[in-house]
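Journal club prep, notes for RB
We'll compare a predicted complex against what the paper describes. Inputs for the pyridoxal-5'-phosphate case:
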Amino acid sequence: MASRSKGAGKRKPIVPGPTYEEMLHPRKVQAQLRRRADAARADELDPLNLYNIHWRNRRGQVRKIVLPSELTGVKANVVVMIGRDFPSGSHKVGPAYSTLVEGEVNGEIRPGEKTVLGPSTGNFGIGTAYVSKLKGYRCVVIMPDSMSKERYERIRKYGGKLDLTPGTESDVILTLERTHELKKNPKNYPLAQFELLPNYRFHRYVTGQSALEAVKGVGNGKVAAFASAPGSAGTLAAGDEIKSVYPGCAVAAVEPRQCATLYENARGQHRIEGIGDKMVTLIHNLLTTDYVVLVHDDDCVMGMKVVTDGVAVLKKKLGVPASAARAMSGLFGISGICNVLGAIKMARHLDLGPKDNVVTIATDGIDRYHSVIEDLNQRTGTIDEHAVDDRLLERWARQVFLGADTEEILDVRPTRQKNRLFRQKEEVWSQFGYGKDLLQAMKKQDFWDAEYRQIPEMDREIAAIRN
Ligand SMILES: Cc1ncc(COP(=O)(O)O)c(C=O)c1O
């Protein structure tokens, strides 16, 4: 770790925020500060909201929903951790904050000194703009030019500037190239989510431990499978933590069928914003990914419409309990539905029973997809909310959720598959100057465990610089 005293004295003080431990256990923050941070939710631009970067509700419980079996059609419990209540509206603010604060700890950046860059398909960019605003940095978000308009609005609202690259979700590699170009200017400081390990640390420790807690009191209280669709593959790191407690847990990476990069080195355009980024990311620990599951992108958009607008249909036609149907509405973005479909497919594939739990994630909520729903309405002609809509919603609910099958699930545990994925990773990252030694080291679990073990020292440093 670089010295945090670099240039100390003349530099602006940092705006304080939590340690990793405090993001996992927000009640470990000193009581008065905790009360002030809770109250700060009323004004999202109050910097005390940095202390609200965690998975918990006010009662200290991990925010989750256990999906009704009337919707999933499987016996296992599909436990979804809810990301939309993080400040800025998605859990991606966690990796953004962690990467920035580690830069501060390392003495590489102080408020006002540099422009923070956020390469992203949206949510990481929103998180970066948000954290930069609260911590007093200028920010430029580098992202494709065809993502949902709500994303750009949110970034601008937080004072972030946009540097748009052509294309949609799976052209995100262009954002990476642009970031590497801008990085040559020493005034820029990239929070390179695809390659920097604070993303891994945040999700392995904070998301992974929170997942272990989320299943307490559900089924047998253990985790049989964890499903997550990678963008940066940060969230997948939670699987490493879950496996350290339940080694038999199956970890599944979910991908759009239209962009089956991990599945078969394919690339293509798709509609699931935030995932399917056309590459194996540097921070993806391929050793702990057991399966790759393909999901159709339009199923995710239709599924999002069903849970958002189909409360009555789910109740009347599928027999979903009213409270569950109401609770689900608003909780899911497109990738959240993708994750749920991946979880259902894994539960079927593994033939899991009523005591078994499959954990997955809803990264963000509906607030950034109204324009996508509007587009779906236009595409399918479901413009009014009457009988035709209800029939269509019922058909979609049955087709998308109850119809999620066990096709297109690839077991990537065999060495042949691991080697293919390692090769794919090398092809991307050697282009960006990463040497053989690092890429070789990443083929051993020790590398990842050593990165993870840095957390206590990092926490001491975070505590030291904020005092
Ligand atoms: C909506 C959405 N879902 C899923 C993901 C993927 O998460 P991760 O980058 O941790 O793999 C992202 C990442 O930006 C996202 O924005």
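Talking point for the session: The longest strand covers residues 138-144.
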